[in-house]
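1st attempt posting a full record on here, be nice pls
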Amino acid sequence: MQTLNSPIIRVRRPRTREEKDLQNLRSRRYREKNLEKVRKSAREWNQRNAEKVRKYSLHWYHGNPQKAKDASLRKNHGISLEEYNRMFVSQSGNCAICQKRMKIGCVDHCHVSGRIRGLLCHSCNFALGLLKDSPKIIRSAAEYLERLL
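the predicted structure (as tokens):
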């Protein structure tokens, strides 16, 4: 028996599949019509709950390494994990420059056109970056080394 001071407990009946689908449709239409408002609200919530978002993101990342790698490749290079894996196999798991066996290959791409050239080991990828992806500088460096050998 409830008294004036006891909390009201509401028991919800389980919703049917049709009710859930209708609510999802309404939510989707609202988001489509109010996209900027929804994005602003989400940004504000994320800012207020930055620590919670960070913890959730780390938890998801560690729980879904394949999905995280796929999302990263799509965002940074416009390729899927499946395409990356095909490139890795086509190179026999070796760096395109030094032919060293790789556990994980770095996606080498042209910074001007965005075109993907291949997979490199970390050292070769880093070296290309330091040499500004310039064939002229790379040839000059090779000639310098050859003169001193």
